[in-house]
Amino acid sequence: MSILPQLIINSIIAGATYTLITLGFNLAYGTTKFLNAVHGSLAAVAGYIVFFLGRSFGLSIVPSAALGIFGASVLGVVIWRLVFRPLRHRGASPAVLFLSSLGVFTMIQAVLAILFTSQFQQLGNVGSPRYEFFGAVITKPQVIIILAGIFIFATLFILLNKTMFGKAVKAIADDEEVARIIGIQTDSVTTLVFAISSGIAGLAGILIGIDIGIQPTMGLWVFLEGAISAIVGGIGNIYGGVLGSFLLGFAENFGIWKISGAWKPAIAFGILIVFLTLRPKGIVRN
Amino acid sequence: MNIIEAKNLTKHFDGVLAIDRLSFSVANGTITGIIGPNGSGKTTLTNILSGMIPKDNGMIIIDGVALERLKSYDARRYGIARTFQNVRVFEQMSVLDNLLVVVTERNVWGALFERHGEYHRARVLEVLERIGLRDKQTALARTLSYGQRKLLEIGRALLTDARVYLFDEPFAGLFPEMAKLIVTIIHELKADGKTVILIEHNMELIRELCDTVIVMDSGRLLAEGAPKNVLKKREVLEAYLGE
Ligand SMILES: Nc1ncnc2c1ncn2[C@@H]1O[C@H](COP(=O)(O)OP(=O)(O)O)[C@@H](O)[C@H]1O
Ligand SMILES: [Mg+2]
Q1: pLDDT tens digits, A118-177
Q2: Which ligand is nearest to the CA of B217?
Q3: Which of A3, A138, B47, B204 sits a CA distance of 20 to 30 A from B22?
Q4: In chain A, what residues touch B50 (CB-CB under 8 Å)?
Q5: For residue A17, is it within any domain?
Q6: Could you list the residue range(s) of the whole structural domain that residue B15 is in?
Q7: Residue-wise over B108-139: b if at least 16 C-beta within 10 A, else e?
Q8: A233 in a domain, yes or no?
Q9: Inside any domain, residue A133
Q10: Which residues form the ABC transporter domain (chain B) (predicted)?
């Protein structure tokens, strides 16, 4: 039996996972213009909220996932208001903001390790149903990842293109200072952007936790895959991010066809370097 | 009644004194021209009056209220609209959206679910008509010509429904047809009882449009008064010729 269908399915699953990470990442990047490593931490935090609620209170996956997403969203907003926003008001450059996000990232990772140990944990019941078609296997969590990717993409598309909020977000992304002068409440809009993007990061973390598992260090991987997909796609552009995600998903999974899976990160960085050299503005140039 | 008063306004950038103890007033409902050689501080003044940069010293009084610190989000609250010498429209948005975003509901939660209603669209269409961009609605702003972008920027200012309009060299680089549109808009604003502050190098336009003209040189006030009096002063001519 050919391995091709399975490779394709795996690539699509990876693409959908990266899409989930990148959508929130690009939404926030587009409005605030800095690489925020905390985006990865929030995925881990949401995963651990679900883990904690399940272990300590026996809460089932759906309500605990809702609380995990909410928790990530609130934490994302709190960090924005306590750390990044004050720094930006004082004129911090994107590089300074990125470094400070790494600081917060490290703190969160340490706290998670202290509270929950560094052990690998699986969310939800492992013996989940599997479906088979064309000789390829896909699990129920993986189907949910793909559906969630489609759902979040569609929701963001409507939010950005059909609502007044979306127009305000685009205006801020384009020229924040002018947006403020014409009376857009840039502060509230940006806060809401962080609430939404952090919530999406939380959802991604929970789904990854159910599919693969969680670890305090997962935030780094989530951040890097999200950032690479975003940069490859054209950073700040949510459509480009989707293309970048699937390019990365396919490249990684087909790349390890004949070699060890340990090479995945190398493939991701290889693609990043190729793009930074040959097409630094990404697939969809702004 | 003065809508804007500045007293001893000072602003410096590193070594450069861009605004130097500048005092002037602008009467409500008038058109005030600001002229002066390049680098004399006209744009810096506009930036301060619209809250984009802080002043070092001095006082700004808007409609009788003395403001210690004017911030950029105060501009709309105090009814101040502006355009930029180097046009700043929302490049990635359509012409229509550039304008609709101005009439976006202020409440963010509401905006999350709300779309633009007929009322908003009607207001925007009326402005599109005035700036002559009605058939460009769906074009992305970045595809417009320089002049069209300047008009779009003016349209955006009109929609804020401000009391004071700061236009920083709106005519520079425009074809006569477009310049005429802007002249009409400025006349209409005055007829509406609005105040216009116009930075401009073309003395014909200053004479035609302005009630008062302020002449700046090296950040200082060189002269102030009716154009027909000010424009014939020797020091004004010298400031320009010495450029
Ligand atoms: N952001 C800034 N940083 C440093 N210097 C500035 C800045 N803005 C203006 N200047 C300086 O202030 C002076 C006044 O400039 P400006 O207000 O643009 O003059 P004008 O609009 O009359 O041509 C110039 O010497 C200019 O170089
Ligand atoms: Mg200027």
Answers
A1: 999 988 765 668 888 888 899 989 999 999 999 999 999 999 998 889 999 999 999 999
A2: 1
A3: B204
A4: 181
A5: no
A6: 1-79+164-175+194-243
A7: beebbebebeeebeebbeebbebbbbeebeee
A8: no
A9: yes
A10: 4-243
